[in-house]
Every structure is written in C-alpha cells, then in structure tokens.
Specification:
single chain; Transferase, Pyrimidine Nucleoside Phosphorylase, Chain A, domain 3; Pyrimidine Nucleoside Phosphorylase, Chain A, domain 2; 3 domains; four-stranded mixed β-sheet; four-stranded antiparallel β-sheet; 13 strands; globular; thymidine phosphorylase activity; EC 2.4.2.4; Nuc_phospho_transferase
C-alpha cells in the first residue's frame, strides 16, 4: 500500500482558488503543482464547495489537456490507498464499463480472466451502475459479501484470481468527493473528469492494464455515439501517458444486453454464458471483451489464439469453477450455481403483450431498467432478487398482436401498473424491419 506524500518541498506559492477558477475559465492549463494543490485542498476540505462547483463547471466548459488529465488522475489516485499487487506474478488487468441495462459481462469476464491466468480486481463504483448494479446482481446469491478490507481483497486476488466488491472508501477518496459534486452540478459528462475518475480508481486497484467498455445510447448516461468515441480515445490516450496499457470498445446500449433485466435473472444468464450458452449479443460482447483482456495481459498473442482461449474456458467449465471459487471466498452459497432452481422465484409471471403486429423498431433500455427497478424495490430500498423481466424481444424481431414483448416476474401487485407504464412505453413497433444495430461500434487502442 502506498500513501500520498505531502506537497513537494520545492517552493510553490499557493494561488487563490478564485485565481485557479478564472485561469481555467479563460482556457488556461494548470501546472503540476496547481493540480496537486487542488487535489490536496479538496482532500483536506480547504476548498469551499461553491468554489469546487465553479472549478468543475470551468473544466466542463474548457476541458483539460491529456497531460493535465494524466496528472489529475495520478494525484486523485494518490489521495488514498494504492493497492500493491506486485507480489502476484500473473498479469493484472481491470475492466471498466460506463454501465448499461442487462449488462452482466463483468460477472462472466472476472472468472473467465482468472481461469485464463489473468488477475482481475473489480471494485464496483457508483459510476459503473445504470439503475441496477453488478453488486445488486451478485447479492442474489445467499450470504454473498461485497464489502471487504484491502488486505482481504489482495488475499482473494492472490488465491482465486478475481474479486468483485464494492468501492473501498480508501480508494481515490477525492474522486468520491468530486463525483458527488458532479452529480449535483450537472458536470457528470465532462470527458476529462470522467477520464481522471476512471483511471484514478482502476489503477488504485493495482491494475497494469485496462479494458474499457464505453456504452452509448438510451440505456447509458452517454447518449451520443461521438461523445462515447471521444471518451474512449481520452481514456486510452491518458492511460498510455500514465504508462498503462489500455484498450476501449465503444458498444451499443440502445436495447438491453441479453434477454433479461433484474438481479437473479441476470445472474442466471451469466451462469449460462459461463457454460458456453446464452443470448447471441451477450456471447459476442463477452468474446470480444475477453479477447481484449487476454491479449492485453499477454496470455494470448494473436487474435485467433485469444478467441480460442476465451472459448475454451467458457466451454470446458474452468471459468464457471472460478465463479464458484469467487463466490465461496466471499461467503456466498455456491449451490445456487449448480442448481438455478434454488434462486428465488417470483409469485407472478405475466406477459407484456404487443399492442399490434409489426417489427420491434426501437427499445428504450433506460425505461425498462427503471420499470424493473420500480417493481423490484422494497420499502427498505433493497431489490427483490426474484423480480425482473425475461425473454425480451430485441430490435428487428417480428411480433404478432398479443404476442409477449417480454415476461414480467413480480411479487408486489401494487407496483405493477406504475411499472407497466415504463415497460409499455419502452417499445416502438413499425411495419418494416429495421436494420439491426451494430453491437461494437469502434475499437480504440
């Protein structure tokens, strides 16, 4: 573990916060000392919140250079603990996603990477969630623990090769302060602030390289494909300047990924993937992200070798065994993996009927996620693991009037109508078949 050092001993005259705000507002570039001073002042609570907000807004409008962003990311990383995984001889690769509906790829890729000899640390931050998080999905496993100390995290990575836990408060604490501020000041979409945040957190986890899944569309907080491409380029460029290997895929999130949205339902679909089965779109994305992970780690040299490595570990059961090892290490009951019937089942299942004949033209994935979240959330704020939707009809599918667009699994009748408003509105049917969306839009390396 490495702790942030104090400001460099060389003379540095501390500027006023208003000067720094004005400098960025006018398009100026911060020096290394100024960035270090900003990060220290946020950590020590010396910068008032109103000036932090003004600074965030100035960065939002004027941006930051790759050099500024790299220094900013490194200083945020050093604002807390940095995990030392150097005693683990295997390659260490992290995976980051901007969050999407029905995205259960992390549940598959972490054990898959471990089976292939790649260590994958996964701390799930709030910025990787779109309504329903990876941790929500894992919580469908009875007794599963998602919070652990850093020492235990390192021990599990050493023994198992993967761990999926909630973001530790000692990892990049300045980023946590800034993220909350960005939520309240409408500056979440700032490319340098996202880039700095991603790299600060993921590199604090001890990763040597990073594979990024930048999602765009109505099921992501990045709605514009060009902005998604810019973010992919920003993270990979700044990552390289920090001497880390980075690859990004820009992927479509204008419909749910896979056939289910929920917690236990999505986990069961992830288990299918780990048996070499499951929906085509999910298989395709797992294959492509998995290939990037093993190539970046140096486990596979060529594209063909990477593809064969991923497919082998999915088909021979070694990746599934790693999922069991991870769940067992985190206190979970692995019997649900062998027997999915042990997962909780909803009392009611009903179809969402197609209002007319036609083709599924568009789907608003965000509305489906919100509808499921509304239906699943209990009075204490927790998600009912049995609740969700399955058998989702995808874009381009032909349906007859009354045919199910999806199956709804629920327990609470009182929430059904409100949820149905979202689910019905999510679908638009048309008489002509639309062109199917391209899942992977661009690769940036």
């Amino acid at each position: 573990m490495a702790q942030k050092s104090l400001l460099a001993s060389r003379k540095f005259i501390k500027p006023s916060f208003s000067y720094l705000i004005e400098k960025k507002r006018e398009g100026g570039e911060f020096t290394e000392d100024e960035i270090r001073y900003i990060v220290d002042s946020i950590l020590d609570k010396e910068m008032p919140e109103f000036q932090m907000a003004a600074l965030a807004m100035s960065i939002y409008f004027q941006g930051m250079s790759a050099q500024e962003t790299a220094i900013f990311a490194e200083e945020m990383m050093l604002s807390g603990e940095v995990i030392d995984l150097s005693k683990i001889t295997k390659p260490k690769i992290a995976k980051y996603s901007t969050g999407g509906v029905g995205d259960k790829t992390t549940l598959v890729l972490a054990p898959l990477a471990a089976a292939a000899g790649v260590v994958m640390p996964c701390m799930n931050g709030i910025d990787e969630n779109f309504v329903i998080s990876t941790l929500d999905k894992l919580s469908a496993v009875p007794k599963m623990k998602m919070d652990m100390g850093l020492k235990q995290f390192v021990e599990q990575l050493t023994g198992v090769g993967c761990a999926i836990i909630q973001q530790h408060p000692e990892i990049a604490p300045v980023d946590g302060i800034l993220y909350e501020l960005r939520q309240n000041t409408a500056t979440i979409p700032s490319l340098p602030l996202i880039t700095g945040s991603v790299l600060a957190k993921k590199l604090s986890e001890g990763a040597e390289g990073l594979v990024i899944d930048v999602k765009w569309g109505n099921g992501s907080y990045i709605r514009d494909v060009e902005q998604a491409k810019q973010l992919a380029r920003s993270i990979t460029r700044v990552g390289r300047s920090m001497k880390r290997r980075c690859v990004a895929l820009v992927t479509d999130m204008n419909q749910p990924l896979g056939d289910t949205v929920g917690t236990a339902l999505e986990l069961q679909e992830a288990i299918q993937l780990l048996k070499g089965e499951g929906p085509e779109d999910l298989q395709e994305l797992v294959l492509k992200l998995g290939m990037e992970i093993v190539r970046l780690a140096g486990v596979a040299g060529s594209t063909l070798s990477a593809k064969q490595t991923v497919q082998r570990h999915l088909k021979d059961g070694t990746a599934l065994e790693k999922l069991k090892d991870m769940i067992s290490a985190q206190g979970g009951d692995t019997s649900v993996i062998d027997d999915p019937e042990k997962f909780p089942k909803a009392k009611h299942i009903r179809k969402l009927p197609a209002p007319k004949r036609g083709y599924v033209h568009t789907i608003n994935a965000g509305m489906i996620a919100r509808g499921v979240h509304m239906l699943a959330t209990s009075k204490n704020g927790k998600l009912d693991p049995a609740v969700g939707v399955s058998e989702i009809k995808k874009v381009g599918t032909q349906v007859k009037q009354g045919e199910p667009l999806m199956m709804i699994h629920y327990n609470d009748e009182s929430k059904l109508e409100s949820s149905l408003d979202y689910l019905r509105t999510a679908y638009r049917l048309a008489p002509k078949r639309p062109n199917p969306p391209e899942l992977v839009v661009e690769r940036v390396a």
